[in-house]
Amino acid sequence: MASYGKAIGDFSWICLMDFDFTSFCSQRSTIDTINLLLVCVFYTCVIISLIRKSSTSGRFRKSRIFLLVSIFCATISLAFYSIGLWNLIAKTGNSKELSWLACIVRGFIWTSLTVSLHVQGHKCIKILNSFWWTCSCVLVSALNIEILFRKHAIGIFYIVQWLVHFLLLFCAFQNLGYFVSQSVPESLSEPLLAEEIDTTQTGLGHASFLSKLTFSWVNPLLSLGYSKPLALEDIPSLLSEDEADLAYQNFMHAWESLARERSKHKSENLVLWSVVRTHLKENILIAFYALLRTIAVTVSPLILYAFVNYSNRKGTDLKEGLSIMGFLIVSKVVDSVFQRHWFFDSRRSGLKMRSALMVAVYRKQLKLSSSARRRHSTGEIVNYIAVDAYRMGEFPWWFHMTWTSALQVVLSIGILFGVVGVGALPGLVPLVICGLINIPFARIIQNCMAQFMISQDERLRSTSEILNSMKIIKLQSWEDKFKNLVENLREEEFIWLSKALIMKAYGSFLYWMSPTVVSAVVFLGCALFNSAPLNAATIFTVFATLRNLSEPVRMIPEALSNMIQVKVSFDRLNIILLDQELDSDTNGRNIKRSSVNAVKIQGGNFIWDHESVSPTLMDVNVEIKWGQKIAVCGPVGAGKSSLLHAVLGEIPKISGTVNVSSTIAYVSQTSWIQSGTVRDNILFGKPMDKTRYENAIKVCALDKDIKDFSHGDLTEIGQRGINMSGGQKQRIQLARAVYNDADIYLLDDPFSAVDAHTAAILFNDCVMTALREKTVVLVTHQVEFLSEVDTILVMEGGKVTQSGNYEDLLTTGAPFEQLVSAHKEAISELDQNNENKRHIEESQGFYLDENQSEGEISNEGQLGVQLTQEEEKEIGDVGWKTFRDYISFSRGTLMLCCIILAQSVFVALQTASTFWLALAIEVPKLSSATLIGVYSLISFASSAFVYLRSLFTAYLGLRGSAAFFSGFTTAIFNAPMLFFDSTPVGRILTRASSGFSILDFDIPFFVTFVAAGPIEIVAIIYILVSITWHVLIVAVPAMVASKYVQGYYQASARELIRINGTTKAPVMNFASETSLGVVTVRAYNMADRFFKNYLKLVETDATLFFHSNVAMEWLVLRIEALQNLTVITAALLLILAPQGYVSPGLVGLSLSYAFTLTGSQIFLTRWYCNLLNYLISVERIKQFIHLPAEPPSIVKDNRPPSSWPSKGRIDLQALEIRYRPNAPLVLKGITCTFKEGSRVGVVGRTGSGKSTLISALFRLVEPANGDIVIDGINICSMGLKDLRMKLSIIPQEPTLFKGSIRTNLDPLGLYSDDDIWKALEKCQLKETISRLPNLLDSSVSDEGGNWSLGQRQLFCLGRILLKRNKILVLDEATASVDSATDVILQRIIRQEFAECTVITVAHRDPTVIDSDMVMVLSYGKLVEYDEPSKLMKTNSSFSKLVAEYWSSCRKNSSSDISRLQH
Question: N or C: less crowded end of the chain, CB within 10 Å?
């Protein structure tokens, strides 16, 4: 007992007097002193809490682990008291060895630890205890590790105490909330559980400790994936703590807290610090895992040192050898398990960060003010989500990789000093130099990445705009112009990409060379200073330590590069999340109940652009009473739409008040339709009420259309309603408003896209009947409806110039009188042709009813399949096909061969250098200079090949990026219009953004790593086998088993990544769609519903990311276990080998390579699996590269003469059109001739085939049968560009692009400024533009958002006035302008295109009354084709259509016209 007491009681207070920190005595004294101080603090806190009787932070429930640890602590304290008592009795006369006092002190400390485990009531005490237990464990662990390495032995009692300290550390983490299930009060949890229990929830929630440790809880998913290809419904849902909603709430809580404190630290990045505050706690645990793993890796050279020394001894003790084996096994297990959990938990934490930021950006865009929305285009918002927020998924991993790599470097340097002493000092010089060189490298890469992101933003913004406007681009044959624009933007991006990749190549060379330089200098230092013998133990310990250095040295540049990218993303996210929001107090409407007024604006002054000279709306004073029908009219650009936006609170308010008394339904001028079914768009999130739904469809004249759709109201609508006619989209919008059953209706020119008769039905049945009890504000150019409303607001120049009812305004002023007079001109032309027929028409009562209504023929409505199909993805193993595709498409075969060759030479030279060391140290007469010199020469030569490998990798990546982007862009611009009708823009944008990010940065390096991995492993196995061939007995089965496990994993991982590829696009698509329709979403107060739908999409995407990561860690853990068997076998064989069987040099060589086997195998496995997963991006991009192309733009052998068409004669010969093979015909055998120089009007009900005829003329769709011949040449025989450049069109939906007025009128730069000004003058825009400060260089925002719809239509007219082709198509070209402007424009068109063939598709039938010929279409058939005067004299379909217009107009206008005539 005495000797035992001496063993553990070698503490003396004299140690503190003669303090020497290198002695164990002083170190133990220091630890005990620190513990005593913490004991005093603990008891002080306990006494204070008892005196204050402060409330506890929550009742502390003693877990079994706390109880168990307290028993262990109490037992140890009793042991110390017993030993102290024994020493006191046995050594009462010894004054120098007061070991009994040391035992009593330690017994008291352990007693206090026992007490601390039971006193946990107050939060401060909990934190203090956790700190105390952690400190104690760390200090004792440090001391014990030092004892182990200096004495190679440690007492059992110390080991027991050490283990209990680790249990205390576990309790400390439990105190902080780790390793403990979250408990909530029963009353709260039960209802939630009833709602939230999901039978397919991920197995992590109910997994055992062992299952969590080994990731076995994911086995059911992997087993299912191995038995069949996984589908989305097979993937379990996330735990509640990982869900996007909770992550977002936690982030916003931190954000709001920091925002309140921001005045103190205005420069700090709120997004970054909110993320830190939210996720700090979980990352502390991850840091602990990373720390243990780093220590386990760092000590491996010391284990190697012990092995070589053991083999070098003449008399060996097997027990010592086996104990070294034990340390090897422990270090490998700790390395493997803790690294896996570090990687998994860091990506799990990153998942929550990613989800929170994606949701935060989406939520922000729902709140952005109008000016902020102009600063952040739809494409940029998609990029914030797809690139910046997405990057956060890897942020914690890279963060921990950065500091652990730095720590590993420091610890490795410490081991170097421990082994070779001052000889390691010279080695610090090249290390410091490399570190200093890293600073400019990091700055250059940061600048490259920042510039790359800016360029990428601009490209994606342009790409988004182009994709949304592809129809007009094809009609105008501007594909080359816009393709060049995108390619030029990519070239800018490519400059920064190439700089970044080349810099990575230099960095790779530098950091591969540094271990070689350092090792050579260290060996030289040993020789010069004689600080350590250059024997096997020294050389291979240094060698293993420097190998340990190579991993962090290789990772640090990449980690810094990624951290730089993250910093750039944090800054970009910070900008949008801090941008201006719609402020209900200063900009928006006040919801204020009033018994009299539904809407009231007093002294309102509003402005869209604060840089503008004058307000958009001035001195607005409007009162709208409940139930009133208000019409707002005025010329183009008068501010009519802005007035509605003022009511909605969307336009910034300078002064005045806006009071809105109830709910609003809004119909925008430009139709906003969601991807989804017709029913979804009408219900708009409201529950189905069949009666109300059917009534909404009926009053909006949609019933016949829906009957004609092959899937009824479940027919899918393409993105932005692209497969619906303009009239259908507008009526779906109107039906949405009617079904919404709001109190106030704001209708922004809803009748412009429909024919006159449909407009009359909508006005009478919908506005005046269905909404008779509602308050309606109607912006309209249809003067015929004005007499029916209660009040008319006449606007001009941003002011309400007149207000009153129809009769009053006719007698009071010029503006309104001009509008009515212009309408009267059109009516008068019609009047003289109608006198004879009026009696017949009235008796016939030709009204659109259920039996007579014409159904709309939409582009896709008749098809047997839905337009927007589920996104295509490969299924099963495509093997190396995609990899071969990548290499062949990039023309990178030679580059790949050079990479493999350079890597092979590098590995061969590295192996040769180490073999040289192993063999040369056995030669007694060999000088140190020769030993080091030969090694250095071989190693330097190997570094040169690393540089070549990295350079070839950069060139392979650049070549691949260029080839794929060129192919992708060409394929998109050459795709037929049907592709854009049926493909959501989000699908294309995901490939253009994140798809190319992977192609640019990841794939080339992954290809190199995968090529390098097998070469390294073969070299390692060769070295092991050449020294102890018996290792093959384990190595071969381990490799086979690894390959099987990898195949088992890959079956599921492949599908997980593929499904993830299809779940990301809807997230981006939904964000893009919301950005375009955010005004409508806010008007209907639907922001919360959209937010919830977006959460579900993010959740689905996150689920795939989560399970992909856990599957990877599952795989790596098992392969590490298998490869560790090989390493342990090799070590065991060396221990069991007879004395002298293997020289110490070869022992060192064998083990130094064996220790890298596991890392190399894991490296290969991880990068191989990642490469296969990332190659799915190549697979998805290639799907679009191989799209079927439309016919060539130029057919060299069949180009029309430059003067073609000289006449403008068009012959339609039995023309039949269908949109897809086997689909119903949309145009059915049309035969007629448009004579040269004639004006042809094309009329028919909305969707009767008019727009399809125009599409056929421009070959947006190819004829199924029949021909279109222009001036004797079949248009199908020539190139599309030759055809489309010779035709002019003003499309139904006017489109402008971001840029200037000049670039919008003349994108190809063919005309002078004088020509442009003349065209502007003719299209009534000269006066407006001449008032702008920048004139023709004045800006046009995204999609022309800063110009009214009517003005955009006038810009389109300006384009065709510049082109002056022989054939002009007006596709409902003046639908969005007022009657007065319409009359002027029709006159200009008649004058300017007098000798041209003009084809006019019109809703206002009188606009074609002066045409030479009129074509009447119905159900895709040609019903009539004759002169309008002849058709008007008979009971023709045309006369009936005109009569409908006449009856709807004349009923409201005849009395007023007669009043005007008087």
Answer: C
Provide the Cα torsion 301, 303, 308, 310; round to 10°.
Answer: 160
- Phi/psi of residue 1378, nearest 5 degrees: -75, 165
The CA-based angle 577-578-582, given to 5 degrees, is 90
Structure tokens at 191: 């209802």
CB neighbourhood size of 154 (10 A): 14
Measured CA to CA in angstroms, residue 773 lies from 708, 732, 788, 812, 924 at distances of: 32, 21, 15, 29, 108
Task: Provide the terminal-to-terminal Cα distance of the chain, rounded to the nearest Å.
Answer: 130
Percent of the chain past pLDDT 90, that is, above it, reads 1
Is the pLDDT score of 645 beyond 80? Answer: yes
- pLDDT range class, residue 195, cuts 50, 70, 90: very low
Q: Which helix (H) or strand (E) holds 1028?
A: none
Tell me the β-bridge partners of 605.
655
For residue 386, CA distances in Å to 354, 989, 1203 come to 10, 9, 49
The residue that leads in pLDDT, 358 or 182, is 358
* Cα angle, residue 989 at apex, residues 469 and 720 outer, rounded to 5°: 45
Q: Using CA of residue 568, residue 570, residue 573, residue 578, what is the dihedral sign? A: negative
- Give CA–CA dist 1352/1344, Å, rounded: 7
Question: SS3 for 637?
Answer: coil
Burial tier of 150 (Cβ tally within 10 Å: 0-12, 13-18, 19+) = exposed
Banded model confidence at residue 97, pLDDT cuts 50, 70, 90 = very low
Q: What are phi and psi of 943, to 5 degrees?
A: -65, -35
What's the rounded Cα separation, in Å, for the pair 676 and 1084? 18
Residue 927 near residue 995, CB atoms below 8 Å: no
In 3D space, the residue among 181, 895, 193 whose CA is nearest the CA of residue 501 turns out to be: 895
- Distances 635 to 562, 611, 782, 1193 between C-alpha atoms, Å: 55, 24, 12, 40
Which pLDDT score, from 0 to 100, does residue 56 have?
41
pTM for the full predicted model:
0.66
Nearest to 1456 by CA among 787, 998, 866, 961: 787
> What radius of gyration, in Å, describes the C-alpha atoms of the chain?
40
In the block, residue with structure tokens 């017709």 = 678
Q: What is the dihedral of CA 1301, 1302, 1308, 1311, to 10 degrees?
A: 140
Say how far apart CA 518 and CA 417 lie, in whole Å.
13
- Confidence band (pLDDT; 50, 70, 90) for 1026? confident
Instruction: Identify the pLDDT of residue 3.
Output: 40
d(CA 1252, CA 1226): 8
State whether residue 401 is helix, strand or coil. helix
Beta bridge partners of 1213: 1267
pLDDT at 1447: 62
E strand or H helix at 1116, and its extent? helix 1087-1136
What tokens appear for 819 in the block?
């509008």
How far, CA to CA in Å, does 365 sit from each of 253, 256, 370, 1079, 1087?
Answer: 19, 17, 10, 11, 10
1088-1091 CB contacts, 8 Å cutoff, 24+ apart = 1089/685, 1090/366, 1091/359, 1091/362, 1091/363, 1091/366
* Cβ(1382)–Cβ(1407) below 8 Å: yes
Cis? peptide before 652, omega within 30° of 0: no
pLDDT digits (tens, 9 = 90+) for 516-554: 777 788 878 887 777 777 777 777 788 778 777 777 876
Helix axes 479-529, 395-420, angle to 10 degrees: 20
Q: Which two tokens stand for residue 74?
A: 């109490």
**pLDDT tens digit sequence for 157-180:** 878 888 888 888 888 877 766 555
